[in-house]
User: Fold these one by one.
Assistant:
Number 1:
Amino acid sequence: MQIAVKNISKDFGKKRNAVHAIKDISLEVDHGEFLGIMGPSGAGKTTLLNMISTNQRPDHGQIIIDGLDLTQFHDRDQAKYRRNKMGFIYQSFELLDSLNVKENVILPLALNRSNKKLIEERFNHMMQLLNIEKLSDRSVDELSLGQRQIVAAARALINNPEILFADEPTGSLDSKSATILLNYMQLINQKEKTTIIMATHDAFTASYCSRVVFIKDGVVFSEVVNPGNRDKFFEQIINMQRTIGGGDYFNVSQNY
Amino acid sequence: MYRKIIKRSLSNMRDSYLIYILACSFAIGVYGILLSMGDNPSLHFALRFWGSFINDTTMIMSSIFAFCAFIYMIYVGGFFIKQQRNEFLTFEKLGMQRWVIVAISFFQTIIVQAIAWVIGITLMLIFQKFMGMLLFYLMRVRFNFEMHISLSSIWLLIRVFFISTLILSIINAIKTIRILQKKKRRPLIKTRWWLRIPAGLFGIILLLTAQVCTLYLFKDMHTISYSAKPLTEIMYIMGADIFGTYLVYFGFLPSILNIMQRIHSVAYSGVNIFSFKYMKERLFQNISILWFVTELSAMALALLTFCYFGYQAVHQNYNSAYPFELAANKNTVKVIREELKKNDAKVKGSYRTDVKINLVSYYSKAEQSYNRQPMTFMSYSDYMSLPKRMRKGNSKINSHQFLKIGFSSSVMYNNHEKEHDIQVKDAPMIPTAKLGYSFPYGSSMHFGPMMIVPNKYYEKMPAEVKDTFYGWDFKKGDRLSHAQMQKLNSYRDAYYMKVNFKSTLAKSSIEVMKKEPNKYEAATYTQAGFLRQGGVKKRFKQGGGFYLFIVALFSVALLIALGSVLTLRILLRDDYQSRQLRTLQKIGVEESEIKGIIRRENTLTFLIPIIFALIQSFVAIAMFDFGRHISKNIILIYGGYIVLYGLFGLISFQVSWRGVKQKFNL
């Protein structure tokens, strides 16, 4: 077990207007696991992801990664840990428009003040792995949405993170681009043994995971484990979505 | 709903609006104070001596101030409209009619201006008395400044408020219309390195040559009265500084950042990979503003330099002309003493010095002419026994040296040169004499130059005429009445000296006449009987105080305006730039590193203009401080300006960081 989330909760707002985003959630993630977090809008997926990735502090509870209780860390140490051990992919890509593709990708290594040789080596490796060598000198404006997300994935993976966090990574992509990205994520998960935690409300995206945790109104509602057959797993996810009532028109057909 | 939109816009940009409103309020407050001072009865009564001068000056100054403040408001007010560009375009996309969007920006401006005016008028009411007292203090007037605002001033303020607010609101409304009509995306800045690199290098060459030229100016400035060279140098320096600075901003600094960005060992280290590009973008965006602020700061520093040296020159001239409140010679001392006894004047100090008048001839280097004239001689010990202030503007001498005190033909004094080979009638030739411009007992007491000589020389030298000078200092003035002064007027001239120049000095002589000669001849000199400078001193102090008040007010206002422009430029980042910082935070950049980027941005924005302004204002010192070391006072004035400017930079950094922190929940 790599990650242990113990009884965490998080409120937003004050007193009467307080919203209980996460209520006493506990879960465990194994090393090299591809975990999906699903749930309807406002269920608390992103909040849970942000807390596990130390971008937000829980009001209560513990988050233990590799035996270290990160909630006890100082902000500065959390940021250092985040930079060294974690990678992030966001729905809105979060690429820096002022930098070109190469600069965007190597940014985490540059921030860590890694040596130039290592930067070049890792960059070339990632470009080959994700098959985007041709894009390296392009500016972000010249990329398609799918290419942008792959570049974002390359950036997230360049410092060889132990855990990759992906918040709605396919949210802005068409189905073809989404499939390419998800295949890459699976490849990385299998080849590099990177633990991936992905928040999504899309059943197709979630079907690439090895396990999916469903949350509703801030609590874990249930979980589904991939039986080894993606079609079957997809069906199970949709059934669960129907049960919670969170699937929207575009993600789950009412007559499926 | 529109009320809510306006309220939210004001709330979103509250830090920036607060700085703008405070700067405007300060300007409005100062304008109101200057305006209301013009017709303040207590000011009129206390300074009736000045007639309508103070009133006219405050009116002119308040108008100039109002005009400058208005330009500032037009310029800076536009920043806020630009900041709302995306918001206005979204409103239009959502179907809001154009005139409604324009009306929103119009009323927003009215609200901001109204708040600024309310605070400004409140500041005026609170600080009018304080500023009046400060003015009286600086003018050394012991009088109670009564707070007063006339109806005409109030009416004028109301009219200015309505007209200026209306014009500003219309201008901002027009800016909004232009935004809605253009709808262009963020304009891409063309890098054009082929143009920037040579332009930047040319700019550096211009600035360097301007500095070399400034060094020459220090040397050449004293020839300004008979050579066109210094003027040509000044013109070149000004042109080279102004254009050179722009070209450096346009080409050199971005090129440096670009080179840094391309050196991977530097750029691929920490946030440098981002910050070099970010700074370059910010620099591209702010070139004109940075240049504008640099030139205005240089102008402010140059103005302060001119004011300082101007004041020094007038003060020095005043000191050399009027060292005692009352001075007399041996012919008039009796009658003056009698008059002083009558009005019970409290004498604080009285002085008496014997002098000899003899004929001299010498070649004057400064005037480039051969002079033959009578000269007043005073012994070294007598000179040293006079109050220190008499010697302030003169070269220091010891008991064996000679000092020639003469009238200065230039604005600033240059005591470095010496006079040589001065022949004195029936006395040894003076080989070298140091120079000075402060006359003991005042220049008006002397008909020509004066010489301080060693005691032995003085004792042995013969005199064509012997005289004694008297001087008094009083506690609370000499109290001479108008009638007494009229009586004393007939003693203004003590005697007249007609010089009969022959082929040699030994054969020449001075004829003393008691009565005024009917026909003035070139070789006739008048010895003043008495000199009263108490009134002039008072007037000088009052004028100087008023001058200081106005200069200080304008300098502070200029500083606030420039500082706030830079601060607002930093605070009002466009959405694109804010998003970039936000992204950095999301991908794991530490808070301290983002803070570092903001700090670098602030430093770059504030440091560059002040450095270039200081380089440029060096020429102002060269124009006045020639041949002398840079005075401590000028360093203090510049230091004060830099400290206040730095304070703005520091506040700007704090506010900017606070804004980023709030926005990103750091």
Number 2:
Amino acid sequence: MKAPVSWIRELVDLPAEVTTEVLTDRLTALGLKLEGIHAAGAEIRGPLVIGKVLTKEPEPQKNGKTINWCSVDVGDANGTGEPQGIVCGAHNFEPGDLVVVILPGGALPGGFEISARKTYGHVSAGMICSVRELGIGDDHDGILVLPPDAGAPGDDVFGLLGLDEEVIEFEINPDRAYALSLRGVAREAALGFGVPYADPAVRELPAPDGKAWEVVVDDPAGCPVFAARLVSGFDPAAPTPDVIKQRIEQAGMRSISLAVDITNYVMLELGQPIHGYDADKVAGALGVRRAHEGETLTTLDDTVRTLASEDLVITDDSGPIGLAGVMGGATTEMSATTTRILVEAAHWDAVSMFRTGRRHKLTSEAGKRNERGVDPLLPGIAADRVVELLVEHGGATAEPGYTLVGSAPQRSSITIATDLPARLSGIEISAMTTVENLRAIGATVTEREAGTIEVLPPTWRPDLNDPYDLVEEVVRIVGYDQVPSVLPRRATGRGLTRTQRLRRRVGRTLAGAGLVEVVSFPFVGEATFDKLGLVADDPLRTTVGLANPLSSEEPAYTTTLLPGLLEAAGRNLGRGAPGVALFETGTVAFPADNGPAPIYGVHTRPSVAELEKLDEALPLQPQHLAVVLAGERRRTGWWGAGSDAAWSDALAVVRRLAGELGVTIEVASANRMPWHPGRCAVVSIAGVQVGHAGELHPTVCRAYGLPARSAAVELDLDALMAAATDVAPGPSFSTMPLAKEDVALVVDAAVTVAAVEAALREGAGDLLETVRLFDVYTGEQIGAGKKSLAFALRFRAPDRTLTEAETGAARDAAVARAAELTGAVQR
Amino acid sequence: MSGPNTDYDPVEVAAVSPAELEAARDAALAAIAAAADLEQLKAVRTEHAGDRSALALANREIGALPPQARKEAGQRVGQARGAVSKALTARQEVLEAEHEARILVEEAVDVTLPTDAEPVGARHPLTTGAELIADIFVAMGWEVAEGPVIEAEWLNFDALNLGPDHPARTMQDTFWTEPADHHVVLRTHTSPVQARTMLTRTPPIYVVCPGRVFRTDEYDATHSPMFHQVEGLAIDEGISMAHLKGTLDHFASQMFGEGITTRFRPSYFPFTEPSAEVDLVCFVCRGVDSDQCRTCRGEGWIEWGGCGIVNPRVLQACGVDSERYSGFAFGMGIDRTLMFRHGLEDLRTLFEGDVRFTTAFGSEL
């Protein structure tokens, strides 16, 4: 909402010391937030004065143009009192006309500095201005010619043109629709400074007689009040008075014609949208009804709109002639020949207006007000004000008759305890202040039993329905700055939950392992999965789709965190990083397909079973953890050669994390895109798969611009954390001497280390403390298709020093079991 | 080796003369002093204190001396040998110390050599920032509540007094999941977590809800379809705006520094009534000479978030007795908070995944 300061001051008598800044501070504190203070002439630097054209000599030029060499009387504004010589390209003026002159040293909007300069063989000392050059209009057909009584040559024109007029732009919250009018803004200003306020909506109205025009309202719920008035003899050529034009433009609307400008002016003044019809184009009675599904209407913006059965329309004998409350129709539009004007001002159901506006993607100044709720007492008042202005400025005659269908809906009053504002704000607010402040906003307050009042909100405040709504009104007038600062003392929380603590632990562990966390968007599309090389029926392709995605390429919520990480890895490498190690934890989603989520009422709490239904309708949303390692992992330096990320780094991350959480994981070979079919591990906990780790498939590396051998992990973090050790049992360990035995076992290449290790462990018995693979050898010495695994076995007894015989026996038993289970042969 | 000799010939055996002994001792001491390194000292030891040395031989003869000469000779020889031995030990220590000192000098390294063999990791400031906020509240006895990102429409809107035709639903354009008539959305705020908390717990309730939220905003330097919020909810007997102010003032000073407080401006949110916008004293200029301040752009205040007293309609929908309890709620953007706390120019840096961005935050957050 843009409100010119002079208009506000016209409606409310503010003390002189209230500057615009003081005014906006106070209004912001009351809830009308300042967006900005604009002045049309803010970019203009004078001298900008009235000039009287003394002579005008047309001089044809070689380029075909004719310029005018003028002498202009600018009074003493040029310091000499002599006429000013100015070259002007426009022709729409004659000697004797008053024009606007900017003199050398001034500047026009856009940083256009004015100086005396040589042009077309003259020294042109200044410029005669058009409205466009002044930044106050679009008209560039000629220069601005002022009325003969505008003033004397040399007079400053800032005030005359409204260039010094400050316009305040407010951000109006949805509950303060009344402030989408000068009536409302001025009311707040009066409230803010405790000065009297003369409501411009107070008018003497004729008694309704239904004779202005026949109106039939079929849907009183959608249109509770409809007012109509008629004028005739209107002069369609009459110009819009400057003050109306300026104010409309300052408010951010365009001046169109006197009749349209007046309806807009009154809307800005009072907040009531008004529509004017060319009465000669309206056939028969006006009707208000819901549209027939599929009916069409061409609106004023020359758009053919197909209507829905919920849309409210205004009709005449020809059918719909307007989209009620939102936009008029083209067939009855006022034009340059309109002399009879039918004025409509109606009160509409706000919800219906909102739906129609949304359905037709139509935002209009009228719709904006109607969908937020307008004072239902305004229609007749606004129509009367429009008639008054049409008569005053357009030479029209008010036809007798005033049609008013319906009446303002009854409001119920609100009972409120007088101490509620004090209790909810924490400010000491007396019962008297509560009553006074509610009266100040226009409410009717009746005292009931002790400590209780009954409040009838003013008609322009449809937002006030509950006691708490009234509290806000009382408190904002007392001042939010009066709210004391007191810490609540009763919070007795139990700290972070175990899951929250574990999640932090996971993040710290991964960062400690040299990984950098990434936060990426969860939107994916088929192309994303193609890039990952997923087969057509891969379960990861079954996504939760978005009905209104930002990009049609990515219309779904992701089932995997890898795409975002892979993109980020590619971005880092593309920006010159020699290597990158990234991780992300986040939500992925899998459709539940349990039908729609219910919509419950809001007056009671849904039952436990009903709440469960809500959750059942939601997708499964596990937390995942993903890692991508690409390029240099350990740096090459003076200490020696580094190494690039490999499949084993991915598993190292998994094991480190599992170790940190105290989770025992199993690792087995797997074949799963986007991983390398021979270098992918499936990770399980107690036999249940929780994710994969390993080297990425070469096609995936290429697709994302990553070096070959890049590695990745994706795990179900929820499952991992659920398996975390809850209470770790205290370890007991022996301090007896350690006995060492190393063995080298030859097995088939296909036999896994895990299998051999498990066999050794099983065979060695209780004396075995640790077993660790320390070397793998393949080569001629052991033959093709074989590998030699070197294990370090470490034995210790809880109570004694082991003898060589005992250790040897345990070692032999271990080797024997390995031979039995894996075909291992000791070298 | 000569053993004790009881059957000796006094003619053949004579004690080393004092002069000879003295000469041998002096020669030994001189050689010891002259030994330049441990190698030379080892040779000196063999020559002057070894089995074949003059002093060792003199010592060996003592046993063959007549008893009356033995004591005197023994004393002389013993003193000489003692002096040599002592000198050897002393010299040994000196040379060893010199040796070690030299080795240490030789082993000196350039300590400015890089040591960055291992990669450096970091957590994202959005994560650590949310944890910092959570910790501030946990320290006050609050708890951290969480909920699903993909949420039922009823919980995201209706339960929070945003009815199907509420204009606020256009203020926050929503991602709907398919099919759209299944009433499931990507949550537009973390408020449904508050609703869930009220629906499943009994007051007193003091929870903060940090989390990821979505709106259909085109992605640019200041807008993102995905961002992060933290909301707080307190439901208790006698809760007022004063408690809200106290809580936010405490939060502000913990997050931005001692003395940073908040101010309230009337505003509108469907789930609160009365409602307020929260501004923060600019933590850079602190309202002094704000005209020059790039953080608050001359305002002296920074818009931080929204808050208010929980609308009784919300309490009603969530099964809280609004006669007995009142509550306050607040919410602000974590991304936005980080942007002005750290002077970030472009929101997109948070989501690009450039490691240079993330590692720059170190452990400050």
Number 3:
Amino acid sequence: MAYFIELLVNGALVGLMYALAALGFVLIYKSAGVPNLAQGALVMMAAYLVWYLGSLGLPIWIAIAVGAALMFGFGLLVERLLLRRMVGQPVIMVVMLTLGMEILLRGLIPGVFGAAPKPLDLGIGLAPVIVADVFMNRAYLIGGLVAVLLIAASMLFFRTRLGTKLRAVSDDHVASWAVGLSVERAIGLSWGIAGIAAVGAGVLWGSVQGVDWTLSTLLFPAIAVVILGGVDSIKGVLVGGLAVGILGSVIPGYLDAMVGGSTRDVVTSVIILLTILVRPHGIFGREDIERI
Amino acid sequence: MTGLALSNVEVVYDKVFLAIKGVSLEVGEGEMVALLGSNGAGKSTTLKAISGLLGPERGEITRGEIRFGDTDLRPLGAPARVDRGLVHVLEGRRVFGHLTPDENLVAAYRGGKAERSFEELRDEVYRYFPRLKERARSKAGYLSGGEQQMLAIGRALVTEPKLIMLDEPSLGLAPVLVAEIFAIIREINQKHGLTVLLVEQNAAATLEIVNRAYLIENGQIVMSGEAETLKRNPDVQEFYLGSGGKVDYHAIKHYRRRKRWLA
């Protein structure tokens, strides 16, 4: 039983950290209406940036702040240089564009900064936190807390006037232009914010597993989270993250011993598949409203 | 010259398709002008050329001048034109379906650039369209067609326009709703001096409320004049108002069926 609870709790915490990686995807989808398949690479890039700034001698907290500012700028740049050309193009173009960006960054960033895993020490420490006989990974615990905070902040953000404008842009680009909203600026802003979310995910995951290209493979669980939760729902990120994390921890916890390991990715794939079959818009995703 | 002036505007889609061929028209300040024409005549294209919304449809103004007051609009993007006081209510309403009516209005509010507070503007919209207030909590996508049209107009009013362009507000609405919406447009025009450029297929209802009208056909303005004059024009009566009385189609000679202004 204690084993089960441990799997459950740590799975939930990992799930929250998946949610953090998925948050950038949802932020962009909710405010610009485009899928961002480069989110994994953004997370990796953010981790590399923070590591690099730290290796220059900056204290880690300042490195994180500077990294967030740089990633925000990078998001704006992506919109200005790439996405602005996609206006009026079918959404598949954006999918291909972001996928291409993911692949490019996956190769380019380790190429520039070095492919060997780099340590990123947040000063969290490695000793597990023990509550009532349940061992919890300290880094996951803090990661989960940060994830909840950032998700809550995003929820509040979309209630503000600026957030409402971004939601309007995701609904209808042409109608947004017609009432004076700058679609370009909204998309740039959403990419910038997603860049900041990527810093959160990159730093926390980087501190857990080291900074190297494998951070970009977080894209896969992140996609599972957003498909399950609903691509445009912040609440969905939270619930989807918890579900993917818990299922991806509990099921392999028992199954791995029987089949010889690595069932986590199978579980993730099955979640994606089942969601698309049973409820294509996810748990909290919006259905397109169509009046007949 | 205040107001809107188009001179010899030509729009090409996809670099090949010539949609409007040298359209010139003027809308004076405080006036209410209609642009009438059938499907595919170039009405919506003309409006999009004015509001700067051709880009997403790969359209381009290849010739001509568009001035609003003293400003040349052609170099400006769509949001900058809204800042100048020009707003476009799109065909098919295009409300933000996943937002509530309230949020639709918030999205259009210009924030720091606005002269009046949001609450003031919102209350004004709800005064014109009390129905919207009743539906303030449901998502705009679930509103009825008429309510959505009211919301689209209300949303445009929140941008504090000097000139509002309406693209077929009567589309798909019951006649009683069309009358209600037209009455409100007229009221806004008269009370607040808001200039209105109304694009319609519904010529009969439109000519009742506008001062002047232009007739567009095949991308060209073929006729213009005071609403009263146009209403009496036999061609307009025959082709737009359908008030030619009972016509024996066998009796009229073939050439009579052709529109005189294109002959």
